[in-house]
């Protein structure tokens, strides 16, 4: 069994992006389509044919449908990214409807499944910098600098618990074990303090957990000076809905209680949220304490700053309120039944939900998936059928911790699954 696995935990997207991912996407798109062509050659060639036979080779037929593909993919990508579509919100419904209509337009048999996992949203957040006597120095922004009109969901960490803190801050660089060890050598403790980190220290949930383990009362994770604010999940213990570990969060499904030990250990114990580099810089520039290591300054654009890592003398006043609820999400499938081994599956899947617009992550892959569906539909109408069943999948709520991907996970572990391709570029 060959499986191409997804990453352990999801990355988040932000309105800010660089040309580099776009160039990478353009380079990887042909490669992804060629992988599918190989799949078709291996599993879809009619009996008695060989590669290179004119008129019968499915790979040649697939490639012959390339003209117009760029326009088709571009049109789908424009539609998919026309507005924010975070899972469980009204904007997600339009994207799901578009994917479903395009799969049906290709002539493929479609299935939809709705689930109600536990999702997490921002209800309220505030941040201020105080003097040692608790007088107000400045209100600090908790918004995305690139989104002054608040068109997209405001920055937050999914599954961060509600909480409040008025405490001294400590700058922890990337929040890695080596960074915390460096603070130990400087004689700086996190106990009872707000940890301020720069994104880049691995999974953000791990950064929060490490700070909590050192006694921190809250964590702020800044985007880098040259980028935006990164939304994302801080769920612990792997992917999947915390209340239905290993089974689908379908209507009427059994759910674990919030007091169950398996559920409690999935959630961080202290509040956290992502902030802009400007917000984090305002805090760090106010700190005293041991001198800031030179190699820690670049992440927030603090070159030349001669301040310290903290703690204090200023205080951070941070409040976060989470809105945690069961939300409806939708999984979409298109199934092409195999002619010889219909109970063995080749799966091509991608998620479609995004923290903001999702142009690169994930909908570059979704647009490519829809073009593959278009081509397979044409091939079916020409008389071609695959040897084994092909399933095209569009998952929801991946950004919350691969919630829907894990719901379809029984296919991943099945001996009937031959190959899994994820075309997210």
- Count of individual beta strands: 14
Q: Unreliable stretches, pLDDT < 50, 5 or more residues?
A: 1-23, 44-54, 409-413
Helix content: 25-40%
* CATH topological fold name of the largest domain: Glucose Oxidase, domain 1
- Average pLDDT number: 86
- Gyration radius from CA atoms, angstroms: 24 Å
Broad shape: elongated
Q: What's the number of structural domains?
A: 2
**Broad structural category:** alpha/beta
Write structural notes for this entry.
It is a single chain. With about 425 residues, the chain is an alpha/beta fold. The protein has two domains: about 20-115 and about 325-420, Zn peptidases (Aminopeptidase, 3-Layer(aba) Sandwich); about 120-325, 3-Layer(bba) Sandwich (Glucose Oxidase, domain 1), CATH 3.50.30.30. Helix content is about 30%, strand content about 20%. The chain contains eleven helices and 14 strands. The strands form three sheets. The chain has a seven-stranded mixed sheet with strand order 3-2-10-5-6-7-9, sandwiched between helices. Helix 6 links the parallel strand 6 and strand 7 (about 220). The longest helix is centred in the N-terminal third of the chain and has 26 residues, at about 20-45. The radius of gyration is 24 Å and the shape is elongated. It starts with 18 loop residues before the first helix and ends with a strand.
């Amino acid at each position: 069994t060959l499986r191409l696995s997804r990453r352990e935990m999801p990355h988040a997207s932000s309105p800010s992006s660089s040309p580099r991912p776009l160039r990478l996407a353009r380079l990887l798109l042909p490669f992804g389509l060629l992988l599918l062509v190989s799949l078709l050659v291996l599993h879809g060639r009619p009996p008695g044919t060989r590669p290179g036979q004119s008129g019968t080779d499915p790979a040649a037929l697939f490639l012959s449908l390339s003209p117009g593909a760029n326009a088709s993919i571009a049109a789908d990508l424009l539609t998919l990214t026309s507005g924010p579509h975070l899972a469980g919100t009204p904007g997600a419904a339009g994207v799901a409807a578009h994917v479903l209509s395009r799969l049906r337009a290709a002539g493929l048999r479609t299935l939809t499944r709705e689930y109600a996992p536990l999702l997490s949203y921002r209800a309220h957040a505030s941040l201020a910098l105080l003097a040692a006597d608790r007088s107000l120095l400045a209100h600090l922004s908790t918004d995305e600098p690139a989104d002054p009109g608040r068109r997209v969901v405001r920055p937050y960490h999914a599954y961060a618990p509600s909480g409040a803190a008025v405490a001294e801050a400590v700058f922890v660089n990337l929040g890695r074990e080596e960074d915390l060890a460096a603070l130990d050598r400087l004689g700086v403790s996190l106990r009872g303090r707000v940890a301020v980190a720069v994104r880049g220290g691995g999974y953000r949930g791990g950064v929060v957990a490490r700070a909590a383990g050192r006694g921190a009362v809250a964590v702020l994770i800044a985007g880098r000076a040259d980028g935006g604010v990164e939304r994302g999940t801080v769920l612990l213990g792997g992917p999947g809905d915390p209340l239905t570990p290993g089974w689908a969060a379908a209507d009427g499904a059994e759910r674990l209680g919030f007091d169950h030990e398996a559920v409690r250990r999935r959630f961080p114990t202290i509040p956290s949220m992502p902030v802009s580099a400007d917000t984090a810089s305002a805090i760090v520039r106010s700190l005293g304490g041991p001198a800031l290591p030179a190699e820690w300054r670049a992440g927030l654009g603090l070159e030349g700053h001669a301040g310290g890592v903290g703690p204090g003398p200023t205080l951070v006043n941070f409040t976060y309120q989470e809105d945690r609820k069961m939300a409806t999400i939708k999984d979409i499938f298109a199934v092409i039944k195999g002619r010889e081994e219909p109970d063995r599956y080749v799966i091509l899947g991608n998620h479609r939900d995004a923290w903001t617009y999702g142009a690169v992550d994930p909908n570059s892959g979704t647009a490519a998936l829809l073009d593959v569906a278009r081509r397979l539909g044409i091939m079916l109408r020409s008389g071609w059928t695959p040897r084994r069943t092909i399933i095209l999948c569009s998952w929801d709520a991946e950004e919350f911790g691969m919630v829907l991907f894990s719901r379809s996970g029984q296919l991943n572990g099945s001996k009937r699954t031959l190959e899994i391709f994820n075309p997210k570029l």
